[in-house]
C-alpha cells in the first residue's frame, strides 16, 4: 500500500468530492495486484469506500 493511500485511510488527509485519488496498488478478489493508474489508462474508474469496514460496529 502506498503512503498517501495509507494516510487517507487513517484519516490524515481525507479526500473531498472532486479530489483526485492517489495512485495505489491493491490486490483484487483473486489476490492479483491492481494499480489505479493502469485501470485509468483503460477508461473511467469508480472507487467505492465502505466506512463500516474501517470502523467498529
Could you walk me through the main structural features you see in this protein, from its secondary elements to its overall organization?
By secondary structure, the chain is α+β, with helices and mostly antiparallel strands. The protein has one domain. Helices cover about 25% and strands about 10% of the residues. It is built from two helices and two strands, in the order H-E-E-H. Strands 1-2 form a two-stranded antiparallel sheet. A hairpin with a 5-residue loop joins strand 1 and strand 2 (about 35). The longest helix is centred in the N-terminal third of the chain and has 7 residues, at about 5-10. The model has no long low-confidence stretch (mean pLDDT about 80).
Quick overview:
Pfam families: AhpC-TSA. This protein is α+β, with helices and mostly antiparallel strands and about 55 residues long.
